[in-house]
Amino acid sequence: MTSKNLARGGEFLLAETPGSQLFTPEDFNSEHRQIAATTEAFVNNEILPVLEQLEGQDFALMVEKLRSCADLGLFLVDIPEEDGGLELDKVTSMLVAEKIGPSGSFAITSSGQTGIGSLPLVYYGTSLQKQQYLPKLTSGEWIAAYCLTEPDCGSDPLSARTTATLSEDGSCYLLNGVKQFITNAAFADLFTVFAKIDGQQFSAFLVERDMPGLSIGSEEKKMGLKGTSTAQVVLEDVRVPVKNLLGEAGKGHKIAFNVLNIGRLKLSATVVGAAKAALAEAATYAVERKQFGQTLAEFGAIREKLADLSAALFCAEALLYRVAGLLDERIATLDRKSKDYYRDYQQAIEEYAAECAIAKVFCTNCLALVADEALQIHGGYGYIRDYPIERFYRDERINRIFEGTNEINRLLIPTLLLRRAAGGALNLQEGIDTAKTPDDPETALDHTRFKAEFQLLIGQKKTLLLLLDAAKENLQQQEILLALGDLAIGIFALESALLRADKNFPTASPRQQQSLESLVKVAAFDAASRFQSAANRCAAYTDPAMQQTITRLCSYSTTGLLEAKQQLALAATEAGAYPF
Questions:
Q1: Which member of 55, 180, 497, 560 has the greatest number of CB atoms within 10 A?
Q2: Threshold 0.90, pTM exceeds
Q3: CA-to-CA distance for 278 and 390, rounded, in angstroms?
Q4: What CATH number has the domain spanning 252-580?
């Protein structure tokens, strides 16, 4: 595929993606499935049986299990071949993260190693730095940690107070400051630390644990993820050799933000895996538990929950692998031998920064819904530690905070799209002008099925573009940006689900086709109500007269919704799991 055929970041607002170009879970090849099976077997056989010990902060056992994970080659997925890695595609990387997802504390600890712990070195390290550290990280001999957050600048890393001062002899930097909420702190051997050179140039440094002046604070007493290490990293005149400056002085923001784009997508995969496991617990319990002489699964109140959770997960999964596929397609066009490969690689990732933020918000909100409703299905037992759903509920909450809070990401989405438009990479104005033209009733007729749902999607895109135009004088207001972000998230999620269902419908079995038809109705009905709520909120802030237009463009009524929910719930209970 040539670059001119590639979808551009944010382009989903202006044109429909051909379903044939969408990567979906149904497209996994044999290698994808084999690696997924290996990872899943490792989690089931090696991690879940000792999860209680890990939750008790047995850090020696945690490190042992990390090294067992490395022995399987799972730390090599994102590592370049010339550095001894496998350099597999982003789809595989997301699959591994998804399959590790149900392990809770282990998932976050291993992600801290393979993601934000290692990728800064992979993308920005010199040859000597990679030779010195990467083999230790990929083998699990050393554990990595990422030190960005500080006590007073959680969502504003560029306001960091940690300083780096060049020594008089010019041989090293003296680092001083405190880093907060650092994952893997208790047992990490290598820290990627962000500091300002002379209090001005935001930069990154590779800091070894045994460098004098580095100390670790007490473990934080957390609500969830109790098996992870989370503590302060204190730096007092830590002498870091000049050769351990990572990337260019003053360019630490590029490292921080580009690594976070992939970090957000990996987190999305992790929470999708956790949500699937939580739904499986709920579906199984609903079949086994009896009340009033019936299983819970026979009650409409429980069936509706299972149907809604299955639909939300389908959207999350479709969205996640759509973004992974976009990244893989763009990265595949790069010249691997070019001296600018990693610069181009980062630009390829940055192209879909808005889509990565969308995935982070939607998928973490999906897990929040699944964990909450799965516990509700368990009733009082869900609140008891003997049942796994209690841990899923506690562990879930932090996902909407780290890797950029969901509020920050919701603000970031329209900001990134508008920035792309201002730079000429996205012609939003043309889209706005088109949205102002009279409606064409034939727009969705290219689709032989799901016509009403695709027509809804077209109306939603028009609505967002019209609201962007109405809000153009007030885009400094966060309330408006949050609403616009919610609209973009809803559009991308619904489109991903519709295109996935439409693409795979012809090859599905009759029973699977029935489930897909049910899924589309349930997902579209929920998406329509959420979208209208956010759109009306945005209109109230900008142009209240638009609310009639919103109702006209975004209304969705469907027959057979009750039957669709009942069929989808039946599919989940029969599978005892997520049914797709």
A1: 497
A2: yes
A3: 10
A4: 1.20.140.10
